[in-house]
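Colleagues,

For the teaching module next term, I've prepared a clean inverse folding example: a structure given as tokens, and then the sequence designed for it. I'd like students to try predicting residues themselves before seeing the answer, so please don't circulate the second half yet.
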């Protein structure tokens, strides 16, 4: 008899698991009424996952009439059982004042419970509370630490908040911590941030770091800085070298620019055949400017044998890509 009881318990557990999976499947298919009916039955048996889903459904009016207070009640039931997702959701309700009186301290309390369990959304939210001093005393170091924990789990909002905190630089420790994280994670992003700030020296420094890691966008940007003399001493040969590295990796803009440099003999020996080769690579990726230039190479027989038919084909592609001069060439 004991063995039979154990078997029944296992059977019921498996059946229960399948039921919650079935409810989730309905939810993902947006069959909210079917999902709600199952979640409701499970929630009445204190299933915290189902309770959290009911909170979501009541909050958004999925499969049931929207009821913010009911949403809070179900979030609370699941949160009291220690379910991190629900604790984070309940924190959001207190933060926004939805279904409850707005209370930043309460929001912090629930975010902390979820964050302590490693829930990335809550870590990001709690980091924001420390950054802004809502419900807690401002503490940029804690904010950065929490953003880093969430960002390490791939949380995009936390990565963005880290970047913004770095840009603000309101506290040197926080600025350094944010910078140190981004140093490891994305020197390209740092380069772009400094470029947008027109701090060209720092931008060039981080582009070079990313370029050495093989990032083709950074290589192109670094080439552009050497070409213009922004943040580095102007060096057309260096520019050509970095454009070449990016172009070899298939970076379309670099292929186009490299074609121009071979055409004009800038930083490289003038070579129409090489210009044609790089224009073609870029043109085949849909660059209308490169397609137009290729058309001209065929018109004038530079690097290729004159071929008006091929020229017209490239002008046509360029025209379709929105390059007006190519359309005029077709008419002529």
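(Answer key — instructors only)
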């Amino acid at each position: 008899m004991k063995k039979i009881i154990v078997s029944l318990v296992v059977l019921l557990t498996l059946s229960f698991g399948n039921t919650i999976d079935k409810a989730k499947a309905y939810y993902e298919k947006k069959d909210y009424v079917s999902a709600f009916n199952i979640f409701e039955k499970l929630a009445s048996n204190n299933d915290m996952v189902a309770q959290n889903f009911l909170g979501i459904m009541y909050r958004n009016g999925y499969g049931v009439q929207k009821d913010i207070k009911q949403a809070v009640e179900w979030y609370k039931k699941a949160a009291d059982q220690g379910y991190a997702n629900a604790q984070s959701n309940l924190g959001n309700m207190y933060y926004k004042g939805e279904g409850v009186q707005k209370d930043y301290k309460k929001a912090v309390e629930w975010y902390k419970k979820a964050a302590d369990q490693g829930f990335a959304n809550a870590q990001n939210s709690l980091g924001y509370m420390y950054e802004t001093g809502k419900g807690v005393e401002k503490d940029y170091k804690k904010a950065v630490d929490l953003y880093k924990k969430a960002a390490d789990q791939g949380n995009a909002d936390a990565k963005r908040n880290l970047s913004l905190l770095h840009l603000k630089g309101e506290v040197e420790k926080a600025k350094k911590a944010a910078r140190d994280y981004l140093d490891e994670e994305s020197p390209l992003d740092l380069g772009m941030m400094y470029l947008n700030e027109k701090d060209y020296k720092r931008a060039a420094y981080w582009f070079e770091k990313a370029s050495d890691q093989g990032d083709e966008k950074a290589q192109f940007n670094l080439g552009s800085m050497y070409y213009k003399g922004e943040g580095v001493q102007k060096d057309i040969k260096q520019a050509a070298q970095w454009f070449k590295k990016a172009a070899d990796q298939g970076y379309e803009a670099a292929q186009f620019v490299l074609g121009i440099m071979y055409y004009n003999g800038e930083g490289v020996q003038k070579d129409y055949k090489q210009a044609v080769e790089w224009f073609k690579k870029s043109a085949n990726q849909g660059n209308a400017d490169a397609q137009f230039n290729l058309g001209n190479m065929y018109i004038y027989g530079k690097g290729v044998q004159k071929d008006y038919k091929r020229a017209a084909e490239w002008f046509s592609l360029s025209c379709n890509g929105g390059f007006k001069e190519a359309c005029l060439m077709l008419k002529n």
